[in-house]
Amino acid sequence: MIERIRQYFNLTRDELVNKVSWPTWSELRESTAIVLVASFMIALVIYIMDIGIGTVLTQFYKLFK
Description:
By secondary structure, this protein is mainly alpha-helical.
């Protein structure tokens, strides 16, 4: 059992060190910037939709008061 666990960790380490393609720092910064901008844009769209739907529902509910 211990040997199987040891083999698992050795294979995992080998994969992370020799087989994974790690990004460079500049690629990482560029990808991070893209994710931040996209996240902000999606949040802005959701916020605008929330305000719009809230306004429409408020007007709709006023019809039945």
